[in-house]
């Protein structure tokens, strides 16, 4: 390629990106603001803004007149956050959640749907998922043609290039042919990522780890999984296994990847079978020996000693998990997320004290406040990152030919 012919085009794209970055970061900006921020000339800035308006990525607002100001007010420009939308999907074993967000990241719609009992066949799961996407778009009051990218989190290991790592028992539940469904059917880029890694993106973006560059998030519901951000970068590893919890089988006092919710349920049920007749039994009732995690936590909060001992065992076990993550990745903050996050606050004192026995400079431990929106929020962030990186190649809906 002749560099002399491409240089003006590359320079213009660089300048367009510079102006876009400023506009995305502020509510609005005048030409003078953009000149100060970019170092470009006024003529260049105005030409670039007109170009971005024509492309659909910027809009012009009328500046208010100040006092007895004469003449035309300064032109004021905004990033057009309604130029398109992204989808964030959280695809679990039992449920799919969908968020629709505009290009500022504001959620404008969503939906949730259960998969068939025991997960269902791939065709069934695909139908449920696509119906949930349609319902979310309807809830947002927008259409498929406005979607610029889809981010999707799955409860499986995913390689750095977005492929579900083969050989996993759960792979058929998540490898649903959606690249063809979304890509060929709608023209949507689909980005697939492990759910714990998306949880880390979400926490760093909008959670208790906002802005933290060295962060670990542990999804601790049924099974443990972690997402690691090191120096602001999400870690994947050679095959997407960075942060995987397989090594817990080697850790004394842990032994497997069972999460907080599963342990509370199993140990609470075992207590009932062994004749426990206290707070857990009162909440569960006389007709079953199956305790839910929620009722075990409630019984502990009400002072039941057996439930309290179960939570103490879980907290001490989790401290060993945190020590492994701390030793390998040295984060400043570890966030506990997932279905049990709200209840896990009760475990923090013991986990924090125990961790200090294993790690010389332990990280801060916190509990996520994002609830079930944690993974789909991370999926939205993943999709937004793609749109921001490819904005000059994408075409907003209002610029597409009818």
TrEMBL record:
InterPro entries per record: ATPase_NBD, ROK, WH-like_DNA-bd_sf, WH_DNA-bd_sf
Family: Belongs to the ROK (NagC/XylR) family.
Protein name: ROK family protein
Lineage of the species this protein comes from: Bacteria, Bacillati, Actinomycetota, Actinomycetes, Micrococcales
């Amino acid at each position: 390629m002749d560099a002399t012919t491409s240089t003006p085009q590359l320079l213009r794209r660089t300048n367009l990106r510079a102006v876009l970055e400023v506009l995305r970061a502020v509510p609005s900006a005048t030409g003078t603001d953009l000149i100060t921020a970019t170092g470009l000339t006024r003529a260049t800035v105005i030409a670039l803004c007109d170009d971005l308006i024509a492309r659909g990525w910027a809009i012009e607002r009328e500046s208010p007149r100040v006092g007895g100001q004469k003449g035309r007010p300064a032109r004021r420009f905004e990033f057009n956050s309604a130029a398109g939308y992204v989808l964030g999907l959280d695809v679990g074993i039992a449920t799919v959640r969908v968020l629709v967000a505009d290009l500022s990241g504001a959620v404008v719609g969503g939906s949730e749907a259960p998969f068939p009992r025991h997960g269902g066949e791939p065709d069934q799961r695909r139908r449920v998922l696509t119906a949930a996407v349609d319902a979310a778009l309807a809830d947002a009051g927008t259409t498929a043609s406005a979607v610029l990218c889809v981010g999707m989190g799955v409860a499986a290991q995913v390689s750095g290039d977005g492929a579900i790592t083969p050989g996993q028992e759960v792979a058929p539940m998540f490898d649903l042919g959606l690249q063809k469904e979304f890509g060929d059917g709608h023209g949507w880029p689909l980005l697939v990522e492990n759910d714990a890694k998306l949880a880390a993106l979400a926490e760093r973006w909008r959670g208790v780890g906002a802005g933290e560059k060295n962060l670990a998030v542990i999804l601790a519901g049924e099974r443990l999984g972690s997402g690691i951000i090191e120096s602001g970068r999400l870690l994947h590893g050679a095959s997407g296994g960075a942060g995987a919890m397989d090594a817990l089988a080697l850790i004394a006092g842990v032994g497997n990847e069972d999460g907080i919710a599963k342990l509370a349920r199993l140990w609470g049920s075992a207590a009932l079978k062994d004749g426990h007749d206290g707070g857990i039994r009162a909440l569960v009732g006389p007709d079953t020996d199956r305790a839910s995690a929620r009722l075990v936590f409630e019984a502990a909060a009400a002072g039941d000693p057996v439930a309290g001992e179960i939570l103490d065992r879980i907290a001490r076990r989790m401290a060993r998990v945190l020590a492994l993550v701390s030793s390998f990745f040295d984060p400043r903050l570890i966030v506990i997320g997932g279905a049990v996050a709200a209840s896990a606050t009760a475990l923090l004192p013991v986990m924090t004290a125990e961790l200090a026995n294993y790690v010389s400079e332990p990280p801060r431990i916190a509990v996520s406040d994002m609830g079930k929106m944690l993974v789909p929020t991370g999926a939205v962030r993943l999709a937004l990152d793609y749109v921001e990186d490819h904005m000059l190649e994408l075409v907003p809906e209002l610029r597409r030919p009818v």
